[in-house]
Amino acid sequence: GEDVEQSLFLSVREGDSSVINCTYTDSSSTYLYWYKQEPGAGLQLLTYIFSNMDMKQDQRLTVLLNKKDKHLSLRIADTQTGDSAIYFCAEKTGGYSTLTFGKGTMLLVSP
Amino acid sequence: KAGVTQTPRYLIKTRGQQVTLSCSPISGHRSVSWYQQTPGQGLQFLFEYFSETQRNKGNFPGRFSGRQFSNSRSEMNVSTLELGDSALYLCASSLALGDTDTQYFGPGTRLTVL
C-alpha cells in the first residue's frame, strides 16, 4: 500500500540549513515531490525528483533520494524567515496524476 | 500564464445542504484533480478528471461527486453536508503527460459546515 511519513515539526535559526525528511513505502513510485503551504494558501510546487535520480539541486533547494531505503530529504540552504511554512512530501505512482501526501512538516524559522 | 483558480474562496453552509465548488485549470491543462485537506486526515485524494471523464477516484462516499466540462473546467459537488465535511478543498491541474506529469494547485475553497 501507499504511505508517506514525515516528522511533524522543525525549528531552525535564520541563516542555518534546514533538512526535512520523508519516507515512503511504495517502491513503484515514479516521481516524488515537495510542496510548500503558507497559512491560508494552496500548495506551491517547490521541486520534484524522478525515482532514478539520487540528487537534484535547484538554487537553495537540494533533494536527496535514497531509493533503497525509500527515504527522501529536502535541504534548504540559508533558511530565511519567509521559508516558515508547512512542507509536504508527495509520491506519484502509476499512470494517473494522483499524489499521496505525507502529513506535512511545519518549519519555523526564527530570527 | 494564469494559475489555477478556485471559486468561491470561502463558503459557510449548514448540515444537510449541498454545495458546488468550481475550479478553472491552467490554460492547456487537461487533467483536474480534487483533494480534501483537514487537520486530522491531512491531504486526501478525492477524484481526477481527464477529458470530461473521471479516471481515478479516492475513498470518499457517493455524496462527493464531480464533473469536468469540455473547456477542462471542473466542479465538485457535496450533497447532504455533514460537520466532518468542513475542510479546505484543493484543486490541481496538470498537462496529463503520464509519468512526467506535475500538478499545480489552486488556493483552495475553505468550506465550513455548521
What does this structure look like?
The complex is a heterodimer of chains A (111) and B (114). Chain A is mainly beta and 111 residues long. Chain A contains no helices and 11 strands. Chain A has strands at 4-6, 9-13, 18-24, 29-37, 43-50, 55-58, 61-66, 71-76, 85-93, 99-101, 105-110. In chain A, strands 2, 4, 5, 9, 10 and 11 form a 6-stranded mixed beta sheet that branches. In chain A, strands 1-3-8-7-6 form a 5-stranded antiparallel beta sheet, with no helix packed on it. In chain A, 33% of the residues are buried. In chain B, 0% of the residues lie in helices and 53% in strands. Chain B is built from no helices and 11 strands. Chain B has strands at 5-7, 10-13, 19-24, 31-38, 42-50, 53-57, 64-68, 74-78, 87-94, 104-105, 109-113. In chain B, strands 2, 4, 5, 6, 9, 10 and 11 form a 7-stranded mixed beta sheet that branches. In chain B, strands 1-3-8-7 form a 4-stranded antiparallel beta sheet, with no helix packed on it. In chain B, strand 7 and strand 8 (74-78) form a beta hairpin. Chain A binds chain B through residues 30-31, 33, 35, 41-45, 48, 88, 92, 95-104, and chain B through 4, 6, 31, 33, 35, 42-43, 45, 48, 50, 55-56, 58, 90, 92, 94, 96, 98-108.
Descriptive tags:
heterodimer; A: 111 residues; mainly beta; six-stranded mixed β-sheet; five-stranded antiparallel β-sheet; 11 strands; B: 114 residues; seven-stranded mixed β-sheet; four-stranded antiparallel β-sheet; globular
Topology of this protein?
The complex is a heterodimer of chains A (111) and B (114).
Chain A (H helix, E strand, L loop, with lengths): L3 E3 L2 E5 L4 E7 L4 E9 L5 E8 L4 E4 L2 E6 L4 E6 L8 E9 L5 E3 L3 E6 L1
Parallel strand pairs in A: 2-11
Antiparallel strand pairs in A: 1-3, 3-8, 4-5, 4-9, 6-7, 7-8, 9-10, 9-11
Chain B lengths: L4 E3 L2 E4 L5 E6 L6 E8 L3 E9 L2 E5 L6 E5 L5 E5 L8 E8 L9 E2 L3 E5 L1
Parallel strand pairs in B: 2-11
Antiparallel strand pairs in B: 1-3, 3-8, 4-5, 4-9, 5-6, 7-8, 9-10, 9-11
